[in-house]
């Protein structure tokens, strides 16, 4: 027997069923359910429960579905995912919820539709949960770029976010003020290595990234950064340091100036003051 779920059929996930009806047993069933898109799914079973409809309570069958297993199977099938093709445009859609991050890397097909290549999600660490929303959203973008680095690096990509302020703050043609929050400066420094355009998309149209950020995989590895090294690197990216400035500042150092002059043969070999610094440079 096959039932079209367009009819009045009540379904519930196995996890929700166990939480809501811990004393109820699941009875086997041969019924198959058909979705609106035509796919057929087999319930784990059914159970007789109290169903409230239009302020009236009655007994009815509720069908229990192994939702996560079916969803995982569908998401990883060729009906959803497509292989990476270098010639097609790339979109990286990211989002952050109070508990997790999500990134979806997709191709834009000639008919302007989007088809995902891969999905990724993780939960936030305890410290990340204390971030402001703008920091969470920017963390999602940077994490997505790192996760799909081999897809994104060296290729023009579109970054898609539902956090509108970030489309102005992280525009590639805009330099952040040196007084900006240090985390955003770090992120902007990292993102400068990529060729991207950042675009805002309404949350209602951003469901692929939004949904999985709320059902993120458990975070099992904390990324550790050398904060001091990261800070100095970010300053190098921000400040206009040139070769001429490095040359000028080097000449101000007495020891380095003597070493340079000795190497260039501009000082007599009898100058004993060069022995120790020169030895240190070449040993």
UniProtKB/TrEMBL annotation:
Domain Reverse transcriptase RNase H-like: 86-194
InterPro entries: DNA/RNA_pol_sf, Retrovirus_Pol_polyprotein, RT_RNaseH
Domain of life: Eukaryota
Keywords: Endonuclease, Hydrolase, Nuclease, Nucleotidyltransferase, RNA-directed DNA polymerase, Transferase
Molecular function as annotated in GO: endonuclease activity; hydrolase activity; RNA-directed DNA polymerase activity
PANTHER family xrefs: PROTEIN CBG26694, PROTEIN NYNRIN-LIKE
Protein name (database record): RNase H-like domain found in reverse transcriptase
Species in which this protein is naturally found: Popillia japonica
């Amino acid at each position: 027997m096959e039932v079209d779920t367009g009819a009045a059929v009540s379904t519930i996930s196995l996890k929700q069923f166990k939480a809501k009806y811990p004393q109820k047993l699941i009875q086997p069933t041969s019924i198959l359910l058909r979705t609106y898109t035509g796919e057929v799914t087999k319930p784990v079973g059914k159970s007789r429960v109290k169903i409230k409809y239009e302020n009236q309570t009655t007994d009815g069958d509720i069908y229990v579905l192994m939702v996560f297993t079916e969803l995982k199977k569908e998401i990883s099938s060729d009906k959803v995912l497509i292989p990476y093709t270098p010639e097609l445009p790339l979109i990286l859609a990211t989002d952050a919820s109070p508990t997790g991050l999500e990134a979806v890397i997709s191709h834009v097909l000639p008919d302007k539709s989007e088809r995902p290549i891969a999905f990724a999600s993780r939960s936030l660490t305890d410290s990340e949960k204390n971030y402001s929303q703008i920091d969470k959203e920017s963390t999602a973008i940077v994490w997505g770029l790192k996760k799909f680095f081999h897809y994104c690096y060296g290729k023009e990509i579109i970054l898609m976010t539902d956090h509108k302020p970030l489309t102005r703050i992280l525009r590639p043609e805009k330099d952040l003020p040196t007084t900006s929050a240090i985390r955003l400066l770090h992120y902007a420094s990292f993102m400068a290595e990529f060729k991207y355009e950042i675009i805002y998309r309404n949350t209602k149209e951003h469901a692929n990234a939004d949904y999985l950020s709320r059902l993120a995989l458990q975070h099992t590895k904390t990324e550790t950064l050398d904060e001091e090294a990261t800070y100095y690197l970010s300053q190098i990216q921000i400040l206009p340091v040139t070769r001429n400035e490095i040359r000028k500042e080097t000449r101000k150092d007495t020891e380095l100036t003597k070493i340079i002059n000795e190497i260039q043969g501009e000082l007599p070999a009898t100058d004993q003051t060069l022995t120790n610094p020169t030895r240190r440079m070449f040993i």
